[in-house]
Write a structure and sequence with these properties.
The complex is a heterodimer.
Chain A lengths: L4 H4 L1 H23 L8 H23 L10 H17 L4 H19 L2
Helix pairs in contact in A: 4-5
Chain B lengths: L9 H17 L1 H20 L3 H11 L2 H10 L5 H11 L3 H12 L10 H6 L2 H10 L8 H26 L5 H22 L3 H20 L4 H27 L1
Helix pairs in contact in B: 1-9, 2-4, 2-9, 2-10, 3-9, 4-5, 6-8, 8-9, 8-10, 11-12
Classes of the chains: A mainly alpha, B mainly alpha.
């Protein structure tokens, strides 16, 4: 059996196949830490796992060849991220300066290398 | 059981909630979300979803990768495949929720008070919450986090609406540049937040191990990246703590 969007309507499809499969992880997270304390060693480890996963998301976004970022060459993405990070360090660890520099670099880079 | 007096009166709670919204608007992530969701709104319009469907998907899902999957595959793939792809894209919420909720829990907080913070947890809210919550009294944290999440989700709703209206008038290079906001914001904010060896090491190892795991093509890339890199960082942290305690 393979249901399609037209059998269900977009709202029900959103709830059953978008909301629930996504929310399940948040719910499991809530239930697992019931009664656990911020300082407990398990939470310290879980925090490290979450931080590493976030870095994984970043690596995926910068290196992946498919998706909406696919039109920007990988070299331009890596170079722009490096330039943005350099600006972040130079301008007193300013997030705004880093993001802005990275954005300008990615637009100019794409314009020059993938017209 | 009799009704316990609330630890913070409602008007104080609301003030803290507003402080959270202000913090959201002052966060770089607010603008990143507006930009990112402009792209998402345009995509939803292109595929043929309604304006309200797009807004509802942001409120209910509140996860950009899952929403991209939903918008781009819901009309073409089988629904079970869509659900599986969405589930696989959202594993990160488990450790994020598990790490942030204990930061705001105290004696007066009931489990159901944590349902809204749980739902509002997304990369942006988590990163800013982990930075800002420890700076304030524990009684204020739930209300503040709810304000922070509400403010940031508003940025996504505004961006989605703008993108939906602009839709076809968005040049492809600009659309891609808007999406590039997300990795840039994650990189800079995480670098700013990494004050401890554990945070910095977990992030750096994740950056190195992520692509290595992805190249193995075993699937569940993010889960393995988190478990391997996070556990190594934790082990190093514990080793150093033990050594320091012995030296003291």
């Amino acid at each position: 059996m393979s249901a399609t969007l037209h059998d269900l309507g977009p709202t029900l499809a959103l709830i059953l196949f978008g909301f629930l499969p996504n929310e399940v992880w948040r719910l499991v997270g809530l239930m697992l830490v019931h009664g656990l304390d911020e300082k407990s060693q398990i939470i310290v480890w879980v925090r490290a796992v979450a931080t590493a996963m976030l870095a994984g998301v970043l690596a995926q976004l910068i290196l992946s060849t498919s998706g909406a970022l696919g039109s920007i060459p990988v070299g331009v993405r890596v170079g722009s991220a490096a330039l943005g990070f350099a600006a972040f360090l130079l301008v007193k660890r300013s997030v705004f300066a880093g993001v802005l520099t990275g954005e300008i670099a990615v637009i100019l880079g794409t314009y020059v290398f993938a017209p | 059981m009799s009704v316990e007096p609330a630890e913070t009166p409602p008007h104080v709670s609301f003030q803290v909630f507003l402080d959270g919204i202000v913090a959201a608007v002052r966060s770089v992530f607010f603008y990143v979300l507006v930009g990112n969701y402009v792209g998402m709104g345009a995509l939803a319009h292109e595929v043929g979803f309604s304006f309200w469907w797009m807004a509802m998907s942001t409120l209910l899902i509140w996860a950009a990768p899952a929403q991209v999957i939903l918008v781009s595959t819901l009309t073409t793939a089988s629904l079970w495949e869509v659900a599986l792809a969405v589930t696989l894209s959202s594993v990160r919420f488990l450790p994020m929720v598990a790490a942030i909720l204990p930061v705001m829990r105290h004696r007066g907080v009931r489990q159901r008070d944590l349902l809204l913070p749980m739902h509002l947890t997304a990369i942006s809210v988590w990163v800013e919450g982990m930075r800002l919550l420890p700076l304030m009294a524990v009684e204020r944290r739930v209300a503040f986090y709810n304000g922070l999440g509400t403010g940031l989700i508003s940025g996504a709703l505004i961006g989605g609406a703008i993108g939906f209206v602009l839709a076809a008038r968005l040049p492809p290079l600009l659309a891609a540049a808007l999406l590039f906001f997300t990795p840039m914001a994650i990189l800079m904010s995480s670098a700013r937040n990494s004050r401890t060896l554990l945070d910095g090491l977990a992030f750096a190892l994740g950056l190195i191990i992520g692509p290595i795991v992805a190249a193995q093509k075993i699937g569940l890339d993010l889960m393995w990246t988190g478990l391997i890199a996070g556990s190594i960082a934790y082990a190093v942290h514990r080793l150093r703590e033990t050594r320091r305690r012995r030296a003291a």
